[in-house]
Structure formats: C-alpha cells, structure tokens
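F.,

This is the one I mentioned.
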C-alpha cells in the first residue's frame, strides 16, 4: 500500500506545476486527467488488478503562419496494490511548424522514459528523437515530402546497448478526394554501443526500402502505413527483410459514441548466423500492439470508455518477449 502515496505525490506535483503556470496568465494551457481500472494478464498467466492514473498538460500558441505546441504526460501503473509491481512512464514533446507559400515545415522533438519494476526484475529505457519534416505542395493534389530524423535509445543494463540512428525519407504525395497517399524511399543507418564495462563490440548496420501510407480523416478515420526494408547488419552474410505495419481505424457511432481499432505489427526475423558476440538490433518502435476502444462522450469535457489491449515488446538480451493483455474501464476529463 506504500505505493499509493508515491503515486498521488507524483501526480500532485505535475498538477501544481500546471496551476502555477496558469496563475501567471497563460490562457492557452490545457490539462487532461485520465484514470483506468481493470485487469492485466502477463506472460506468467497470472491476472493482476490494474490501476493506471495519467496526467497530461500542454500549450498551443499560434501567430500568423507559425504554430508552437508542447505537451508532457506522466503515467503510473499499479498492480495488485503491490509496491514491487510497479511501472511509470514519462513523455514529452514539442512541435514548431510554419508555412511559407507552398512550403510547409515542422520541427519535432520527443522524449520518453519507461520503468518497470516486477519483484526483483527491473527494466528501464529512455529514447529521444529529433526530426525535420518538409512538404512542398506543387498543386492542391500533389506534393513532395522529405523527412530527416535522429534517434537515440538507452536500454540501461537489461539490453546491454545504446542505439544511435539516422533516418531519411523522401517521395511524392497525392491527395485524391478525401484520401492522401504517400510513397517514400526509406534509409536508416544505426550504430549500437555497449554499456560501460561490457565486453560486446560496437556494431552498425542500415535498413533500406520503401514506406507506403494512406490516410483519411473525414467522416471516419483511416490510417495505414507499411514499410518493407532490407536490413544489412554487420556480421551478416545476407540481408534480412524487416516489415512493419501500423493500422488505425476510427468511426463515430452516433453523436456521442466512438469506436477505435489500432494494430501495430513488426516482423523482425532472427539472424541465422551466430552473432552472440555482437549486439543485436531492434528498432525504437519494436512493440506489437492491438487495441480496441469503445468510448462515450458524456459532454465536451468528459469521456468514459472500455478498452481491450495487447502488447508485446521484443527484448534483445535476454532473448525474450515482454507481453501482456489488458481489459480496462477508463475516464478522461479535460480540466481546462
């Protein structure tokens, strides 16, 4: 039960921070409070009572052709009200976007920290990325798109590695009625560094291929992204084939009901060669996810929902898969 005071203390600090900013006259801040309660089932086939509070705050500022937005969130997960079964996540990001005639650009920075504590086992990792996105629209229905991104990930001790990666994408985009289509060339170079004191050697590689996406955001929400990449890893004789699919579908069921389905799948084949003496690669977004959500808007500030979810995080060392399913009832409230 000692975990409850820690949970409320952390959330209270974030809420007091937001209120102090509001008191200084910043009128464009927003705050969302979220609370989920339900069951969580892990790989050990045991079901746990789950309590998950979450606080998100941020601000949006728009002036002429420039827009700035930042947000930060803090989430805790409590299992069976047991202090030894605990997780916390922090996310932060900012986006600066603008447009000059036919050219639109945005700069993004995101950082994420996750920590899981289950009995004597602890898993913690931190990742950040910085990206620049450019869209040059030659006509109302056609554009050229380019994106550059720098990634960093530190998986502390349990995966014995740090990842530095650079990604570049470029290609055309097409708007057809209510759909937008995009086909991009994808190139990623990465370097894996061992943690201090580890005997594993630094290794590198690259992934090259195509990224296809289709989006629709009118009477219903539809988004599909598919990547197929040749993966050249140091020490492999033949390249591997990586595939990634992200699918999102949302629809409004009447005036107040919504339904969402999200699927994220990564196919990352294992190396057939013996690479036990080298670090092995896993992309930053390597988790497989499945989520169903049925929501009801009580009013313009409050939403209640039922969500069924499954996640599988592919760990590198030890060679295992961190997986769990959840069924929760949630409440999300916009404070201001």
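My design for it:
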């Amino acid at each position: 039960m000692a975990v409850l005071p820690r949970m409320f203390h952390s959330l209270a600090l974030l809420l007091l921070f937001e209120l102090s900013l509001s008191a200084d006259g910043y009128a464009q801040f927003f705050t969302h409070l979220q609370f989920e309660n339900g069951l969580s089932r892990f790989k050990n086939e045991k079901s746990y009572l789950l309590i998950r509070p979450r606080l998100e705050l941020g601000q949006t500022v728009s002036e002429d052709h420039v827009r700035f937005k930042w947000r930060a969130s803090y989430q805790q997960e409590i299992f069976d009200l047991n202090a030894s079964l605990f997780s916390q996540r922090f996310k932060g990001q900012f986006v600066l976007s603008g447009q000059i005639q036919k050219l639109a650009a945005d700069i993004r920075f995101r950082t994420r920290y996750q920590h899981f504590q289950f009995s004597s086992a602890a898993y913690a990792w931190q990742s950040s990325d910085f990206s620049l996105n450019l869209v040059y629209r030659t006509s109302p229905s056609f554009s050229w798109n380019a994106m550059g991104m720098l990634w960093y990930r530190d998986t502390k001790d349990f995966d014995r590695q740090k990842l530095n990666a650079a990604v570049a994408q470029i290609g055309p985009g097409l708007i057809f009625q209510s759909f937008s289509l995009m086909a991009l060339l994808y190139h990623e170079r990465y370097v894996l560094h061992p943690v201090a004191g580890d005997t594993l050697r630094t290794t590198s590689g690259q992934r090259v291929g195509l990224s296809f996406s289709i989006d629709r955001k009118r009477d219903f929400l539809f988004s599909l992204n598919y990547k197929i990449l040749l993966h050249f890893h140091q020490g492999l004789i033949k390249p591997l084939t990586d595939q990634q699919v992200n699918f999102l579908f949302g629809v409004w069921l009447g005036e107040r009901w919504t339904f969402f389905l999200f699927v994220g799948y990564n196919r990352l084949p294992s190396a057939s060669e013996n690479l036990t003496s080298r670090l092995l690669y896993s992309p930053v977004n390597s988790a497989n996810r499945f989520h169903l959500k049925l929501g009801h808007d009580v009013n313009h500030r409050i939403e209640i929902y039922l969500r069924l979810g499954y996640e599988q995080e592919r760990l590198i060392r030890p060679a295992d898969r961190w997986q769990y399913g959840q069924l929760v009832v949630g409440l999300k409230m916009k404070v201001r």
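The domain at 33-335 is CATH 2.40.160 (Porin).

Talk soon.
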